[in-house]
Amino acid sequence: MFSLHTFGGLKLLDGDGREAAFPEKGLLILVYLMLEPTARASRSMIARLLWGDDNGSAQVNLRKLVSRIRLRQEALGRSFLRFSETAVELDAPPTISDLWFARSHDGGPIFARLKSLVKTLEVEFLQGIDCQSAVFFHWREVQSGRHLSALKEALNAAAAEANGMDDIALVREAALLVFGIDPEDRDIHRVLLRIFDAEGEVEHFRQIFKQRAALLTSWSAQQEYASEIRAGDAIFHRERTLGTRTRVKIPLLLLPSTGGQGKDYDTSSLVNDITIGFCALDSLQIADRYTAVRVGRAGERAAATFDQWDRSYILEMRLSLRDNGPLLFSQLVDAASDEIIWAERISLGQSSSEEQRQAVARRIVLSLAGQIERREMMRSQFEENPAAYQRYLAGKRYIERLSVPDLQRARGELQMALRTGGHFAPALSSMARTYSKEWVLTFGADAALLAEAESYAMRAIAARRDIADGYRELGMTKVFRKASDESIETLKLAEALSPGHAGIIADHAEALLHASRPDLALTKIESAIALNPVSPDTYLWTASVASYTLGRFEAALDYIDRMANARLADRISAASWAMLGHQEKAGFFVRRVQRTSPDFDVDRWLSVVPFKEQWQRDIYREGLRRAGFWKATPNVTLA
């Protein structure tokens, strides 16, 4: 009995749950035909799906692929696909797959269906597939749209019937998932408002929806006078509105394309479209496009190219050219703190039509404008005392160093900042983080640290209910208090409030890891790493632990090798080497931990680590035992 998994990756498992070797493109054909009403497609269609063009080269590639598929099917004793001279057909598909809902409209219990949909769709469909065909990208987008429609249909039906606490919690989880994918859906707004109204949390959502509606209105107005704006030189257009604008300079840095060969995308037109989009918004203004593009082409580090008093944010856009179209990586950097506050990768396809460029530009502008406006409203609190804002930034930098002395220094800076702005939500949430991180670094020795973290997180939420910071920190304190379901729910809300924020995605991954869902945690943390290529050590630590608990010990060590300060992962290094049978290497890390923490005790430490399920502690315990950490008596039952 074989099973096919398409969400969070693509793999075929045998009856024992082991991954069966099969060509990736062969599995992609299998998925395509399982979703086709006729379960059949022409060879030319398959060639276009896999390689973009039905030319001689694609046909040669297809013949080679067919030969490999036939050999693997023979070895497995199962004919999934049948080939003729002109067509490919579904023969005997896997008995089980996670595509159950795609063609199913059964009349089963609506809450059971919704629960299964949420579990399936919380990871990306065909994530990480190495297929750069524009036909594939379009087909995958169509399928993802169908998946979202199925989720919305089940959500609307369930929302009308939800009464009990469990049903309401499920509807809320599904609504937040949809909100993150399609934040402009008005039906989902109504569902969320109804649910959060019952809990007294409705006002901040109303404000978010109002802001999004205003952004959409501004974008629509842009179409009316776009022709009046000379692209790249429109900073002071419509001067009658400048008095109400947030004075934000956003250099658009079009960095050099990297990797691969292919048709050049019309990047200058895309920058024009984004420039016009920002000029259209009443609340923002941007810097001269020509200056920005010239700086980007110089290849210099963005934050170092503008005078510190002449910049606020930097939008970096980098194209990676692929055989079948470019991939656009965009990230918004707060120039004062050099913090990445938004990032996204967008597949552009082979063409650069005006309609497609407008869609990409609209997506970028609307995502960024909300982030910038919220950040500027917070920054305005320190306009009369810039020294306090500098204290806040200094505190943020200390937090990143992840040592107890640096966390204590961060608290000192943040406390000074809060003397002027006691209700500054980012400073309050950063205070919460200093306490929760110190609790982790001191092995949970002082419960009062978590109490302080939760108190500051709640103060941050009270100060600003429409930003993610407080919810993010509250979610992490829930993780450490072993309230895994509450932590994931709170971090989903934070991610919905600030989509594309790599740090929040990474914290959500850590919550999933401690909720004993390392597979989902690894998928999510890899997304955070992709959005922030210079990933903090905390991202890599989460990825290493998730890999370890999945039994991927070499992958765990690979993540640790990428850390700037690998000492933070000495325990997982020791356990990984021990599980691989390298006792001498494991012993090196054991001795290093014992020099740093001579009183380290495995059982006491594992009782503090907030894993939800015992199996996750057991595999960690086994690795530490094999490595040579062992001070506890056998058969101790852990909390």
Mean pLDDT comes to 77
Residues in helices, as a percent range: 55-70%
Side-by-side strand order of the widest sheet: 7-8-9-10
Task: Tell me the structural class.
Answer: alpha+beta
Low-confidence stretches: 198-202, 218-247, 256-263, 285-311, 631-639
The biggest sheet, with number of strands, parallel, antiparallel or mixed sense and barrel status, is: 4 strands, mixed
Protein name: DNA-binding transcriptional activator of the SARP family
GO molecular function, one term: DNA binding
Keywords: DNA-binding
Organism: Rhizobium hainanense
List keywords for this structure.
DNA-binding transcriptional activator of the SARP family; 10 strands; 4 domains; single chain; Rossmann fold; Sig_transdc_resp-reg_C-effctor; three-stranded mixed sheet; disordered C terminus; 58% helix; alpha+beta; 639 residues; WH-like_DNA-bd_sf; four-stranded mixed sheet; Serine Threonine Protein Phosphatase 5, Tetratricopeptide repeat
Q: Your description of this structure?
A:
- The structure is a single chain.
- 58% of the residues lie in helices and 8% in strands.
- The strands form 3 sheets. Strands 7-8-9-10 form a 4-stranded mixed beta sheet. A 3-stranded mixed beta sheet has the order 2-1-6, with no helix packed on it.
- Strand 1 and strand 2 (11-13) form a beta hairpin.
- By secondary structure, the chain is an alpha+beta fold.
- The chain folds into 4 domains: 3-158, no CATH class; 251-383, Rossmann fold; 385-499, Alpha Horseshoe (Serine Threonine Protein Phosphatase 5, Tetratricopeptide repeat), CATH 1.25.40; 511-638, Serine Threonine Protein Phosphatase 5, Tetratricopeptide repeat.
- Residues 198-202, 218-247, 256-263, 285-311 and 631-639 have low confidence and may be disordered.
- The longest helix has 28 residues, at 134-161.
- Helix 20 packs antiparallel against helix 21.
- This is DNA-binding transcriptional activator of the SARP family.
- GO terms for molecular function: DNA binding.
